[in-house]
Amino acid sequence: MARVVFTPNIQRHVACPEAEAPGATVREVLDAVFAANPQARSYVLDDQAALRRHMTIFIDGVMISDRKDLGDAVGDRSTIYVFQALSGG
Description:
- This protein is an alpha+beta fold and about 90 residues long.
- It has a single domain (about 1-85), classed as Beta-grasp domain (Ubiquitin-like (UB roll)), CATH 3.10.20.30.
- It is built from 3 helices and 5 strands, in the order E-H-E-H-H-E-E-E.
- Helix 2 (about 25-35) crosses helix 3 (about 40-45).
- It is globular.
């Protein structure tokens, strides 16, 4: 199962502890995690189930390329990191 880690800056806004879930894509893994935590789902994903603009996801240190469908492949031992993107000057 893949491990999903939410950074501390996200957890200031919504409770989302580290979790493990099965799945072959980012979508499948996150759907399993968010089934038990719908509040986190609405913080990370928009109403079209795409990744919100202020969020970013890395799989084993590599940024995902499919922000809309979250179809990037996930290995059984992958770690998915969910970040709140930072901006400013």
